[in-house]
Structure formats: structure tokens, C-alpha cells
Design goal:
This protein is mostly helical and 279 residues long. Helix content is 62%, strand content 2%. The two termini are 27 Å apart.
Amino acid sequence: MRANYNPLLKTVVGVEGGISDRPLSADPGGLTNKGVTQATYDKWRAKKDLPPQSVRKLTVAEYTDLYRTEFWDEIKGDTLPSGIDLAVFDYAVNSGPSRAAKDLQRTLGVKADSHIGLATMEALEAANHDDVVAKLSDRRLRFMKSLKNWEPNKNGWTKRVAHIKAVAMDMARGAPPPPKPLLTLKAEATGKAVEAEQAQLKTADGAGLSATTVGGLGQTAMERAQEVQPHIGDTVLGRAAIAVFVLLMLVGIGLLAFAQLKRVREKGGLSGYIGGLLQ
């Protein structure tokens, strides 16, 4: 419901917490503030013709607008019944609007195309709303348990889904949205539960190193080599610095290639992988 956006935003931000920058093996979202990843913040600022900056600087006014345009509007929050709007909204913030909309549609037994339109709304009108919330929440938790980063997030995710389920079911039965957050989790308690980003997790044979991390090390090595090279000339140390940079970059490229190959295999071949990208 349209009137529910502001109080439900407080509820969702409460379970998202503040600033988090966990290893990608636990949270593929990377640096996050109030549930907003750096990538999402960059995308939103680009739409506003604003220069990029760290998501650490995210303001209340910014995330109020961002949550509406990037999540609430994407799941047609203004038109969803009370209670169901919270269940789908929180799911969208944590796992993406497309996944949340599709699982709502699967719960209702209509075509799961991620577009909440006439067929979905007609099914909602005919359904028992608190039953829909319960089934959607259970489906959401089953999805989370299938993810590679379930273990480091299972406690936070379980608390989050149970809390959202309880509040949303109360709302579906006629209770108003809570005026303030009833549960506040630390940002480190939950990570992003996004299926499309699972290929980033547990790379380098589980050593906790991601291709992004290795690439960053390579860039740092290159910068240090460029700083040192003018002072030491064509020496063994200078050549060693360049060699280290090249090695790290090659490892980073290899990890990226391995992650993509694994994703292709998980999707059942190249055609399945391309089809997933086009969804």
C-alpha cells in the first residue's frame, strides 16, 4: 500500500543494519550501508547525474529515495495488499526485486515472469493474504538455505525472515505497520542473498580470496612498482616488482575465468548461462 512505504522502510532498514564490509565468501554484496551496496548506490547516483562516492556517505534522504525507486516501485509496492507489501519488499532488498516478485508469483500459482501485473493482482485478490505471507516466507527461507553463503548468515537470515513473516502476517490480518523498527540486526548478521552473485563465493579453493581481491592486489603492486621503478632503474628489485604484478593479475584473470566456467556448468551449459543473463 502507498501509505505503508515510510513505516515499512524503517522496518527493513532496521533488519539491514548499518555499514558492513564482509568478505565476499559471506556477503557477495561487498561494502554495504543500510542495506545498500556500493554497486546499487553507484547505479542510483548515475541516474541522478551525481558523481560516484562511497556508500559510507549515504544519507537518510538518499536511501529513502533509493529504496523507493530501486526496490519498492520495482515490486509495485503501492498496489500490493498490506502485509504482502512488507514480505515482498524485504525480500526484494535482500535478494533483488526480480527474485522477490517471481517467488510471490510462484506462491500464487501464476506465471513467474517478475512483472507484477493484472494476473498477479487478480490472484492476490482471490487469496488469503496471511496465508500468502506465510508460504512466501517459507519459500524465501528455503531459497536462502540453498545458497553457498547460508552458513555464515543462517542465524541472521533466520531471525530476519521469522520477524518479517510475523509482522507481515499481523498486517495482513488488519494490524497497522509498526511505527518504528521492532527488530534491529547488526549489518554483519545478514548478507545479501542473491542467486546471481553466488559465482563470486568461495573462490581460490575456499581460501577466502576473491578474484576482485586478487585484482586489487595486482593493481596495488603495479602502483608500487611504478613508484619504485624510477628510483631503482632496471635492477633485479625493479624487475621483481613488475613480475609480482604480472603474476597477481594472471591469477586474478584465472579466478574470474574459473568462476564464469563454473557458472556456465551450473546453468547447464552455455545456452543456459546466456539465458540466465537475459532474464
